[in-house]
């Protein structure tokens, strides 16, 4: 716990008390920055990053990948980066406070009010921590549904130099997804917030379905 607290302070540069994302307004006291958030969920290799890039281009969202933010922290040479690196290599989930603070910081530094959170949340603790620290409720959840066999093939064929793209770690990541993240999909589905897409198809077909979802959300003011 001590290491996590120290890491949070080094990431954020201030104490870890709760706050809502804020912005300055005409030199007066900060006001709340109302943001629109979509959680993009799917198993490892389901195509989240590719789909998010297309959503950014067409609908003007900012794309925040929890995994990329963690890897960026590692590359920055943080004294605690080794802890994050080891947990990711073992297919384990990084403590929620760390992940949420990195997301929170990125949202504050981005001049936009529409965000795609790629691969987040990953478990119930992520949800509780995100809601507690940001007080933000997602507009909806984009769920990229893809068979494990297809996701495995994609992960093993891509060449990104990622240490967590090996068969042993991939199996651990699938297990974590099934045990921790899929229940979240069911939870949000019970609230009518899940938009499910068949992600085993070619990316062009997948994005046609995604475009329909986001166009409808824009029309409804979601």
Which properties best describe this structure?
single chain, 222 residues, alpha/beta, Rossmann fold, 5-stranded parallel sheet, two-stranded antiparallel sheet, 9 helices, 53% helix, globular, UMP_CMP_kinase, UMP-CMP kinase, cytoplasm, nucleotide-binding
> What's the CATH superfamily of the domain at 33-158 and 192-220, by name?
P-loop containing nucleotide triphosphate hydrolases
Morphology: globular
Residue ranges: pLDDT <50 for 5 or more in a row? 4-31
The H/E string reads: HEEEHEHHHEHEHHEH
The largest sheet is:
5 strands, parallel
CATH class of the domain at 33-158 and 192-220: Alpha Beta
What is the terminal separation in angstroms?
A: 38 Å
Strand content: 15-25%
List the helices and strands and how they pair.
Blueprint: H1 2-12, E1 22-25, E2 28-32, E3 36-42, H2 48-59, E4 62-65, H3 66-75, H4 81-89, H5 96-108, E5 114-118, H6 124-134, E6 140-145, H7 148-157, H8 167-190, E7 194-198, H9 203-220
Parallel strand pairs: 3-5, 3-6, 4-5, 6-7
Antiparallel strand pairs: 1-2
Helix pairs in contact: 1-5, 2-9, 3-4, 5-6
């Amino acid at each position: 716990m001590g290491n996590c607290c120290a890491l949070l302070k080094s990431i954020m540069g201030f104490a870890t008390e709760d706050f809502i994302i804020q912005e300055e307004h005409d030199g007066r006291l900060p006001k709340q920055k109302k943001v629109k958030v979509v959680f993009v969920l799917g198993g490892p290799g389901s195509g989240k990053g590719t789909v998010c890039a297309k959503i950014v281009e067409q609908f003007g969202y900012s794309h925040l990948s929890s995994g990329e933010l963690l890897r960026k922290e590692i590359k920055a040479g943080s004294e605690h980066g080794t802890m994050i690196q080891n947990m990711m290599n073992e297919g384990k989930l990084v403590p929620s406070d760390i992940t949420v603070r990195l997301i929170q910081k990125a949202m504050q530094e981005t001049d936009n009010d529409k965000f795609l959170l790629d691969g987040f949340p990953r478990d119930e603790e992520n949800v509780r921590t995100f809601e507690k620290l940001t007080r933000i409720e997602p507009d909806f959840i984009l769920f990229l549904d893809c068979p494990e066999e297809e996701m495995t093939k994609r992960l093993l064929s891509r060449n990104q130099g990622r240490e967590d793209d090996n068969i042993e770690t991939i199996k651990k990541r699938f297990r974590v997804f099934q045990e921790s993240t899929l229940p979240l999909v069911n939870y949000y589905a019970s609230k009518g917030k899940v938009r499910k897409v068949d992600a085993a198809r070619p990316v062009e077909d997948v994005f046609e379905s995604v475009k329909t979802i986001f166009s409808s959300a824009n029309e409804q003011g979601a």
